[in-house]
Amino acid sequence: MGILYITEFADEGKDQNGNLAPVAMMPPIAQQAITFTTSTQSAVLNAQTRFVRLHTDSTCSVRFAVNPTAVTTDARLAANTPEYFAAPPGSSTAASQAMLK
Fold it and tell me: What is the pTM of this model?
């Protein structure tokens, strides 16, 4: 069993001159966590969400879709290694325990 933490962002940060910076603008607009073994789906992402930070405490496979089911051939996340993804509007995220090799 693992936990996938989903942090939702609407905008990128800006530097002191107002230029976009390659960082997420805090605070996030929404946060959720899902506990998974087999494919487990999150709530639908906030309508303003443009990208998400995913962090898992257990290696898993993830999928974004309107009604996703994550399988072991989907994008793999390593435990304790956060990643950022553009989030399709109206989508959810699903996570499933990945087979270890």
Answer: 0.91
